[in-house]
Amino acid sequence: MPAVIRSRRLAVALLATALLSSCGVSTQSEPHAVDLPRRPLTEPQTNAAPEGPTGDVAEVLCMVRDDRLVQTVRRLAAPPTPQQQIDHLLAGPTQAERERDMTTALAGLSVEVRVGDDARAEAEITEADEGSARTDETLAYAQIVCTLTSRADVASVMLLRDGDRLEVPRADGSLSRGPFYGSDYIGLIAPA
């Protein structure tokens, strides 16, 4: 009887192996590239030719429309560094984005970004005219925080000036020295 049980177990094991190997999915020990759509799935299809270079990597930037944050996705050939992504944000909307009424609240700012091992970005902010009062500072800080936290390698952002933490408003108007999260500005994000 033990020989019969062994034979049945062997048959079941061979059948399971055959079924699993015939499903068409091979095992892999390394990750592989996946082809993604050429445009964001949340954005309506347009007939206009894309502006600027296109690629397989999505870069999320938070622009402003009607005093609300709106995400725009640009396609790049290679993943941007956090600094490159902020530089693209500081450059403002493209012509196609301006035609969709996107603007920025970041005029006159420069930002230097460092990301630590703890997934916290430090954004050192300098204004061209330090004495000017900004009426859109909440939107400006929200643009920086939400753009950086759209990255997989950034969980939170510290906003600094001359190495000291800035006390800045969140979407609800409360002041904080951070760290800041994208959720701190969720009330400013326009519905999709």
UniProtKB/TrEMBL annotation:
* Keywords for the protein's UniProt record, in alphabetical order: Signal
Signal peptide interval: 1-27
Q: Which InterPro entries match?
A: GerMN
For region Disordered, the annotated ranges are: 26-54
- What does the record list as coiled-coil region(s)? none
- Which PROSITE patterns does the entry link to? PROKAR_LIPOPROTEIN
Domain GerMN residue range list: 57-167
The residue ranges flagged as biased composition, category Basic and acidic residues, are 32-41
Q: Which residues cross the membrane?
A: none
Asked if the Swiss-Prot or TrEMBL record annotates the protein with the keyword Ion transport, the reply is no
This protein's superkingdom? Bacteria
Q: What is this protein called?
A: GerMN domain-containing protein
